[in-house]
Amino acid sequence: MASVASDPLLSHQIWHKNQIFPSKNPSLGFLPIPCSGFCSNPRRSVVRAQTAVIPVDSKGVVAPPPFEFDAVSEAELKERGFLGLRKTKLVCTVGPACSSLEQLERLALGGMNVARLNMCHNTREWHRDVIRNVKRLNEEKGFCISLMIDTEGSQMHMVDIGGASSIKAEDGSMWLFTTQKFEGHRPFTVQANYEGFAEGIVVGDELVIDGGMATFEVVEKVGSDLRCKCTDPGLLLPRAKLTFWRDGKLVGNNSDLPTLSTKDWADIDFGISEGVDFIALSFVKDADAIKHLKDYLSTRSSELIRVLAKIESLESLENLVDIVEASDGIMVARGDLGVQIPLEQIPAAQEKITHICRQLNKPVIVASQLLESMVEYPTPTRAEVADVSEAVRQYADALMLSGESAIGSYAEKALSVLRMTSGRMELWSREENRQSLLTQRQLAVSLPDRIAEQICNCAVEMANNLGVDAIFVYTTHGLMASLLSRNRPNPPIFAFTNKSSTRKGLNLQWGVIPFGIDLSEDMEDNIGKTFNLIKTKGMVKTGDVVLVVSDITSSHRIPVFQSIQVRTIA
Prior knowledge:
This protein is of the alpha/beta class. It has an eight-stranded parallel barrel with strand order 5-6-7-17-18-19-20-21, surrounded by eight helices. Strands 2-26-25-22-23-24-4 form a seven-stranded mixed beta sheet, with helices on both faces. Strands 10-9-13-12-11-15-16 form a seven-stranded mixed beta sheet, with no helix packed on it. Helix 5 (about 285-300) runs parallel beside helix 7 and helix 10 packs across helix 12 (about 410-430). The model is unreliable at about 1-65 (pLDDT under 50).
């Protein structure tokens, strides 16, 4: 390390060497830690306890480089300490109930990490205003909120019902479901969006609205239309989904529908132009649709836009592993999935999806009806709180509010329930040492990637055993940050990156707090300036112990730093 003592404009500000692991080799000054699969090259993969030297000017002040951090995480850290930081990320669907700048700011202060826009509803102009409000909050208030658009997807559903908010279907009433297009409202008539919706349907089949909001029996086929009798009364809502069942099994009569409609492609182009961070793809059947969209995005966006696959159909469950591998993350869309499989299978399906995502190192969002009662009421049911707790216990990366925030009267309270419940469940998991039960499959193939994976596995084990306060990771594309997150460590992961798209992408990773900062190939410089900036902000204090790893590569794509360091803030 170059000394700064010879420079008259600089003085020393030092974090002292901390010999946590006394070396048996004085010439090295560090002790390689034996760990299976990790220390195959002890000259490159080592554990160090070192000094960080920070230059300051004659007034003792360091001029800070560009540094972006989340104001909410900063305040939470100062108030609760490292282990008090929430690990589970929170996604809020933005709708009419929470779309103003002031309402969005309150959600941001309440812990919203990602703002989701459902392209099924509202106009593109409305969505554009929300996107710009979120970006304004990030720029002016210091938030780090990512943006997600959710495509409508190709599905069978009712069209708008003449401007009404809902229509009641009474027991025994007769209804005509038709593909004929008409304006306004016709009594006892429902217009379907898909011309082939009646193909393969026979008299006696069940027509289920929105997974059980109402149920009809098909009593007559009239050309391409169906005459049906209401057998289970309920409300018919605009754009409610239509599914057919026969002998307790789903009738798959929409296989010809493409995953992405013409409207979806237009919405995707809109998302690209507005600079969104995630695109959630609805009704994914296989991995091909994901690959096709990612190829499309790579040619039209200079920044990386991550593609999430929504698991909400039988086909997606059958091709689950391939879809997870092809995507950048998964959303467990339990509402639509519950239309396609029996309700009692939903909990097992959710746990399976969550487990596979963690094994394959892809973030997973548990969504739909987490706090459904809070659309109308200020407090959740005890069963809903238990449902949220179970998702956190399964180590889901994120939880999502849908109608609770989009149209509900208590969006901020619902978000608060998610935040408090997830925090309490995370504390219980630490107390029970549940992360020790996690097993990980090897993902990497090449030697450099295997080294990085083993470094992260061992780093988390060390961090937990030593009780360090935080893990610092320096990353360009977020790989090592995600590998650390995959192991669900006790301390929080502070991820420092020089790419905005990486910072926003890490907003969905469990336990990761992303920071934006200029990084160089000199890791001592990176470590020194981040230590100084974090300490200046009051986010760390003297005596805090951090574990440091990195996946920064040189201009020749050679890793410049592959080691684990343990450092104490002085």
